[in-house]
Amino acid sequence: MNLLELREVTKEYPTSSRRKGWFGQKTQVQAVNRVNVTIQKAQTWGLVGESGSGKSTLAKLILKIEPLTAGEIFLKGQCLYGKKMKDLFIYKTIQLVLQDSSSSLHPKLSIREILMDPIRNFFPKQKGEWEDRLLKCLQLVELDPTFLSRYPHQLSGGQKQRVAIARALAVGPEFIIFDESLASLDEESQHSILSSLKSIREEEQLTYLFITHDLQSAMQLCDQIAIMYQGELVETFSCSEDVRTLQHPYSQLLFQGLG
Ligand SMILES: Nc1ncnc2c1ncn2[C@@H]1O[C@H](COP(=O)(O)OP(=O)(O)OP(=O)(O)O)[C@@H](O)[C@H]1O
Ligand SMILES: [Mg+2]
């Protein structure tokens, strides 16, 4: 079964009144336009494209943070917008890691409390396993247990981002969306977290959607890459292919000199 399937997914935002079109009629921004893509379990997809091409909007639609304008999304065969779909099921299956994790880690909570919170919420009846889960998440992101008693302000940017990844792992997801999750880190932290993501994926059999402007990282981590341009998914390709076989002019421009 497909883990995630997008069919003709479209999102329009109304523009602000200042930017109304001719004769004052309302105009729309076509943020995502008829995107079709199927993601299988344990695949790693990269999502690349210029700023404003609709990458984050697509992530928000998958997580139901924003409503669709048109199209359909299926998560594990069930319609994301169907009556039977529970929000808890979505968040148990899919987690999101953003660029600026430091702002989303509560400054007054210790790392133990930050990680225990989702564990308690998602595994309320397995109290006996809480501590093991906590330690496992920390170990996956390669932080030692001494971090548990620390607070976010006592951590480096890279360490905070590791905590944000551990918090996503705490709910035991099948699928993680990384939206520019490494972008604000220095090169060394990026490399080291990228290699952690590879081993976490192997160990936990996870599926990733890795949204980035860093094509080198995308090529290193992913097996498939989707290229967005002005809201449309213009091309998908497998990283084992030669980038010289890319068809769309924007893809060719983007990957010029790579591969
Ligand atoms: N809440 C919103 N209201 C109106 N327009 C929006 C909203 N969110 C996004 N947009 C518009 O939708 C388009 C796609 O934005 P999106 O954030 O998805 O781009 P992106 O590919 O993630 O860009 P970046 O690489 O800079 O993060 C842009 O034109 C943006 O201005
Ligand atoms: Mg974005």
List keywords for this structure.
alpha/beta, four-stranded antiparallel beta sheet, binds adenosine-5'-triphosphate, binds magnesium ion, 259 residues
Write the layout of secondary structure elements.
Blueprint: E1 2-14, E2 28-40, E3 44-49, H1 55-62, E4 70-75, E5 78-79, H2 87-93, E6 94-97, H3 111-122, H4 130-140, H5 157-169, E7 175-179, H6 187-204, E8 207-211, H7 215-221, E9 224-229, E10 232-238, H8 249-254
Parallel strand pairs: 3-8, 3-9, 6-7, 7-8
Antiparallel strand pairs: 1-2, 1-4, 4-5, 9-10
Helix pairs in contact: 3-4, 3-5
The structure holds adenosine-5'-triphosphate and magnesium ion.
Account of the protein in words:
By secondary structure, this protein is an alpha/beta fold. It is built from 8 helices and 10 strands. It has helices at residues 55-62, 87-93, 111-122, 130-140, 157-169, 187-204, 215-221, 249-254; strands at 2-14, 28-40, 44-49, 70-75, 78-79, 94-97, 175-179, 207-211, 224-229, 232-238. A 6-stranded mixed β-sheet has the order 6-7-8-3-9-10, sandwiched between helices. A 4-stranded antiparallel β-sheet has the order 2-1-4-5, with helices on one face. A hairpin with a 2-residue loop joins strand 4 (70-75) and strand 5 (78-79). It is globular. The two termini are 32 Å apart. The mean pLDDT is 93. Adenosine-5'-triphosphate is lined by residues 13, 29, 31, 49, 51-57.
